Amino acid sequence: MMILRTLKRQPLHGYALAQHIKRASDDLLQIEEGSLYPALQRLLKEELVKADWGISSTNRRVRTYKLTVKGAKHLEHEVSRFEKMLEGITRVLAPGES
């Protein structure tokens, strides 16, 4: 969900994607390469993202990922599910409730 949300803002290559999530979370969330690239491959296979080869600002060949229409719809659904789950957790953890 975080990958899809980040790619909704703009297409990014893997390293930039991981760095954005790290910065946006004030360094609370760090995605390791061993998790990121397999996740991106699953998203590609499910056609939630697409990828194109290009050149980075440091003149290196990079694969840039972009959210697809199918990915945007999936993201919307997943965010809705997450918000409902978070609401339930908040109710269970509310002080004074037993």
Key structural traits:
alpha+beta, Arc Repressor Mutant, subunit A, 3-stranded antiparallel beta sheet, 16% strand, globular
What do you see in this structure?
The protein has 98 residues and is an alpha+beta fold. The chain has one domain (2-93): Orthogonal Bundle (Arc Repressor Mutant, subunit A), CATH 1.10.10. The protein has a three-stranded antiparallel sheet. Strand 2 and strand 3 form a beta hairpin. The chain contains four helices and three strands.
Brief characterization of the structure:
This protein has 98 residues and is of the alpha+beta class. The chain has four helices and three strands, in the order H-E-H-H-E-E-H.
Write the SSE topology.
Layout: H1 2-9, E1 12-13, H2 14-24, H3 33-45, E2 49-55, E3 61-67, H4 69-93
Antiparallel strand pairs: 1-3, 2-3
- Please list the strands of the largest sheet in the order they lie side by side: 1-3-2
Which CATH class applies here?
Answer: Mainly Alpha
**Cα Rg:** 16 Å
Number of strands: 3
- Give the structural class: alpha+beta
Largest sheet: 3 strands, antiparallel
Morphology call: globular
Helical run tally = 4
Low-confidence parts, pLDDT < 50 over ≥5 residues?
A: none
- Domain tally: 1
